[in-house]
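Input.
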Amino acid sequence: MTTGSSLLILGQGADPASERGVSCPGELPPASDPALVERARAAKAALGDRLFVLGHHYQRDEVIQFADVTGDSFKLAQEAAARPQAPYIVFCGVHFMAESADILTSADQQVVLPDLAAGCSMADMATYDQVEECWEVLEDAGIADDVVPITYMNSSADIKAFVGRHGGVVCTSSNARRALEWAFAKGSKVLFLPDQHLGRNTAVLEMGLSLDDCVVYSPNRPDGGLSTAELRDATMILWRGHCSVHGRFSLDSVNEVRARIPGVNVLVHPECRHEVVRAADLIGSTEYIIRTIDEAPAGTAWAVGTELNLVKRLAGRHPDKTVVFLDRTVCFCSTMNRIDLPHLVWSLESLAQGEVVNQITVEAETAHYARVALDRMLALP
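Output.
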């Protein structure tokens, strides 16, 4: 019997509702086209100063070579805002990043995402309706007035706007502690969206809270799976969300690499599970990871717990050091990797011909309140 939730046999059939944006309008160059690199160069040259290409650190090398600036999501959005003379911003990243760029850039600039299917599984784990329902649960528990919401940068514009409306702030992995300090100066509790691991790791390892101070709100369970007493006793209400890449690293990964490479330094992103960051030698944002490897002495060995494209790039850049992926199993960010050379060439050539494709536009009211939350982050001490 076939139902609406039946599994599709591999290679047979498709679910349009779950594959939004997989097909772009227009003709994509075939992935095997040997002229793709030259076509990208030609289209970029034709656009000149009208174009600004942003490349996230997790992008493929074939794409990152055409980026005018590389960085993490917030740095790239800021870079876009700092280029008002460029009417076209091509964001080689994922959907929430392009949204942030649209929020921070002027009305005269148009933000393009080469493939609309480049989303973020973590951002998709918190929808606006779910967060609204959570807030009603907090109101019913009588604690909403004590709760300050914080959302990680890796969230949709809708969630950033929700936080902006409710007196909260956006954070990045590098300023999460400052955001928590700001929030606890305003209230006694924090609702942390959507990555439970970054919230827990920051609260426990940097703020001195205990694991008992944290509860996890599950949006697919009645009342988040928590009792009124648990909500009232909690200091950190963590959303049940995670990064599909960073969440895969385990304590076994750490133990295995230490046994395989004596003296290895384990360096992980704070989106990793709590037991993994506890077992690591160093923890930090993507920019911190890059800086640490760049500055490390020759001859040192590093096992890095973050996206594989970046780890491979760091290893290639530092042949005098041993740089390996923390897990033996290959794991790219599948949605980030949707931005490939055929999609990039298609978007650049379309712009060169005067056609804006895959434009990301955030509705005005949503953009306003999301900007409120982002501006609060920028004002953090």
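Residues 1-25 have pLDDT under 50 and may be disordered.
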